[in-house]
Amino acid sequence: MAAERPRSPPTRRQPRVGPGRLRGRLGTVRVRTTVAAVVVAGLAMTVGALVLVAVLRDTLTREVATAARVRAEDVASLLATDPSGRGSLAVDDPEEWIIQVVDQGGRVVRASANAEGLGPLARLRPGESAEIEVKPGGPVEEGGQYLAVATPADPPPGSRTTGTPAVGGAVGVSVGGGTVLVARSTEIVTEAAGAVGGLLAIGVPLLLVVVAGTTWFVVGRALAPVEAIRAEVDAISATALHRRVPDPPADDEIGRLARTMNRMLERLERAQARQRRLVSDASHELRSPVAAIRQHAEVALAHPGRTSAAELAETVLAEDLRLQRLAEDLLLLTRADEHTLALRRRPVDLDDLVFDEARRLRAVSGLRVDTSLVSAGRVDGDAAGLRRVLRNLGDNAARHAEGRVAFSVAERDGVVLLEVDDDGPGVPEADRERVFERFVRLDDARARDGGGSGLGLAIVAELVAAHGGTVAIGTSPAGGTRVGVSLPASPTRPAEAPSSGGAGG
Known about the structure:
The protein has eight helices and twelve strands. Among the domains are: 83-186, no CATH class; 253-337, Signal transduction histidine kinase, dimerisation/phosphotransfer (DHp) domain (Helix Hairpins), CATH 1.10.287; 346-488, Heat Shock Protein 90 (2-Layer Sandwich). With 505 residues, it is of the alpha+beta class. It starts with 18 loop residues before the first helix and ends in a 17-residue tail after the last strand. The chain has helices at 19-26, 29-81, 187-235, 253-302, 309-337, 350-364, 383-400, 456-466, and strands at residues 97-102, 108-111, 129-134, 144-153, 178-185, 346-349, 368-374, 378-381, 404-412, 415-422, 470-475, 481-488. Strands 2-1-5-4-3 form a five-stranded antiparallel β-sheet, covered by helices on one side. It has a five-stranded mixed β-sheet with strand order 7-9-10-12-11.
C-alpha cells in the first residue's frame, strides 16, 4: 500500500469586503466630511485661481496700455518740436516696441527702424487702443501679440510721405494732423499669467491634499470618542447595565452625548432593578394566597372531618379575592408605566366621594371617621380612579390608626386639597418618599395579615399624577400621618355642598 501523502494545512482565506460593507465604509462621517471639505475647498480655490489670473492679466494689460500711451504722447510732443523726427522714433528693444506716424490719408509718414516697410499697424482713432498680431519675419523677426494705442499728432507741413496706404479707408482722423501709433508687446502679460497659472495648477492640488489630510485627521480625532462610546454601548448587555460609556472632558456635543447616554444607562439600570424587585415581590405576594389555598385544600383532603366545604370555600374565596386585587393593581401600574391609563374625565364632586369612603370605613372598622372639614370641591377626573385613590388612602389610614381617621377637602386658588389624617405612629421623614414606591412596607407594617401588598400608595401616586396632581406625606395634628393630595379644580363651579356630613364617629 502506498504511503499517504501528508496533507498541507488548509489556507485561510481572507474575508472579502462586500459591496455593502464597502459602501458602509465609504459612507462614514469621516469620509463624507473629508470629501465635502475637499470639494468645497477645490471649488473655492479654482474660482479664486481663475479670478486671480484674470485680474493679473487685466492689470498687466492696463499697465502695458498706459506705458504705450505715455510713449505715444512723448513721440507726439517730440515731433512738434523736432519735425525731422530724429530720436523720437528710436526704440531700445525692437521686439518690444513699434512706433508709426500715420497721416490723415492712412499712410505711414514716420516709423521706427523695426517698422520700416510695414503698413499701418491698426485702424485706430486718436484715444483708441486694440490688441493686434504682428506676423513674424521682416523687420520684426519674432512677431507676436501687441497692444496698440493711438494719439493725435501734427506732422510738419510739407513733409514727404513714405510707406503704403492702409487697407480699408482712412484711419487716425485728426483735425489738421495725423496720428501716432505705438504698439507694445504683450508677451510679458502672457508670461506672467502663464507663470502664475502654472504655480496655481501645482499649488491648488497640493493645498487640496493638505486640506484632505487635515480634515481626515481632525475629524478622526473628533470622532474617536464616538467610536469609543459605540464600542462600549455595543458591549453592554442586559446583565451589564452597570457599565458606563467614556465621558470626554470637553463640554461639546460629544461630551454631552456621552453624559446623556450615561444618564440613560442609569435609568435603564434603575428600571431593571425595579423590574426585578417587582417580579420578586409579586412572586412573593402571589405565593402567600396560593400557599394558603393549597394548605387548606391538603388539610381538607387529609382530614375530611376537620373542615367543612363551606369553610374551605370561604378560605378559597378570600384568597382568590386577594389574588384578584393584586392582579388588578399590577395591571394598573403596568398601564401607568406604559402611559395607557384610560381616564374618563368629567366633572366630579370630590366631597361626595369622600363622604362615600367615610361611610364605608365606618361600616368595616370600629374607627371614628371625622368629615367635619370636608367642603365642596369639584375636579375634572375619572370617578372610578378617584374612588380608588380615596379607598387606598382610607385603607392605609385605617390600617395604622389607633382610633381616629379624618378627611378634609378645601378649594384654594384653583386647586382642590384633599387631606387624610390618622392618629397612628406616623411615617419617619426619611421614608416619606420611599413609601410611594412599589412593594415598599415599613418595618411596623411588614406582616401581610395586617398590612397590604405595598402597592396602595404607589397606585395613589400614579393615579394622582395622571390627573395632573401631586401627593405628599406629612404629620397630622394628632401626631400620626397626613397624606395630602392636590388636584386642579374644575372650571365648573360646584353646587353648594350639603352640611349633613358632619363629624362621624
